[in-house]
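If you are new to this repository, start here. Below is one unmodified record pulled from the training split, so you can see the exact layout before writing a loader.
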Amino acid sequence: MLILVLLSVGTVQGETWSSALIVTQINAKQLYIVTNSFTSYKLDGNTVTFSSKWNGGSMETGVFQVTANPWLSVKSSTPFTIKMLSPREFLISAIDESAVVLPNVDVDVHTTTEVITPTLPETPTLPETPTLPETPTLPETPTEVVPTPSVVTPSIQPGTGLYDPQTLQLAIQFRLDKINRQVPAATVVEISTAVSRWANYFNLDPFLVIGLIEMESGFNPNVVSTSSAVGLMQILESNFYNYAAQLGVKSDPFDVDSNVAVGCKMLSNSMTIWQRPFMALRSYLLGSTGLMNSILAGNDAADSNGTRSINYANVVLNIRNSIYQYFNLTPPKEQYVVVLDPGHGGYNPGNGMYNMGAIGLNGIYESEVVLDISLKVADILRSNGVTVQLTRTRERDKSNPYDLEDRLRLAENFKPNLLLSIHANSFTSSTANGVETYWRTWQSKWFATTVHNAYLKQAQLRDRGVKQDTTLFILKGTSYPSAMIEVGFITNPVDYALLSTPEGRTKAAQGIAKGILEFMGIDVKPLDR
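And here is the target side for that same chain:
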């Protein structure tokens, strides 16, 4: 059972109070509580009252009864202990050692058709032990437990050192101690070895993978949900076997290496589409189709699915960050490479001519308009910490590729996270006007939509829509989202008025840059330049 509640810090009668973000049942005898800021508590017999408000109502969790009045209160039918894991994290454990049969985990994370009860989100923060007929999952007394390291090793350097299996063993044991759980040493070694191998293979942050494993299974390789999601990374068997065959691993979803391999593959797929861990984790939970449809429908985070996935991603990222802090390292800042393709402008050695694109009012060339806008977009992105590459930076430059295949090859040599091709439209009639944006592959739809909407808001031109076009060669790349925006018609007086002046092109560049930054989740500095 998991209850996730999001509240902001508020003020009542001049006093600042905190709110309970997470109240989750680890098992029948343990509760895990997270608040949004420093929280104190008061013990009275078998009842503890926190200085945090909670709007979860009430719930029964094994030996505990949780209520709000409005302060979060936990009452137990048996004596218990409270362990403050941090000023905002608490673990409540019943002292009674009588055997308790734990319920099955109920997590199904890789389907977009799952119906989820809004009031009781099903995704557990720390999945519990399943009841498999032949394989006991969590022995009461493990025969061997990885000891808690007496001294944390803070000398690990960012980069390849993070993938060292011994480093990952320390990280996993740190998290096991945090959640007060024991796992046999052999299992810890298996998990750390698998994470080392596959996180490195897919270029994923290994501490992020560990956080996801903790969230999905509590480091139990034999976990099974009622929806038949299995193993460390809770993968539906319908997804598992196809990916396992692709990766050449065992067709056994309970095999540690195989499960981690497929889980990392699926997380890597989500990273390709969504580009940042927060969105990739939400996609891992809801499925990319479900998340995409929710966003495009404009109701993301307005229902229980959205709220649940936001909380889910935040918890995993908090686990990841706690591991970095354990090693005295700073969590990584995501680095992005954006490739801008100013349309046309290429040199044709066959006839000695340049491709200037369309010709607009007063003889204005498309290639000149879009190059100026692209250079301005690049300046804005760089000022916000983004690495930018352009397929061309000058007009009438014989080194500019003319052939589209050469242009795409040049773009992909930069290893982009995103590619945006910028063009201007034209028509034989001057009445045609407005902005349209194209995407080719499904993974690029949200990127195209985000840039399109931000540009429209800034440019205030007619909206001609976001459309799919499978013929656009520059958008042929499949390992990153890409889009082509037509910023307006240079043959239309209204659009020309914006695109023909330095001030108008600056305004256009601001809208495009804002859309790119919004997609990457980067806080935008004021775009008044």
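Two things worth knowing about this chain: The longest helix spans residues 304-326. The radius of gyration is 27 Å.
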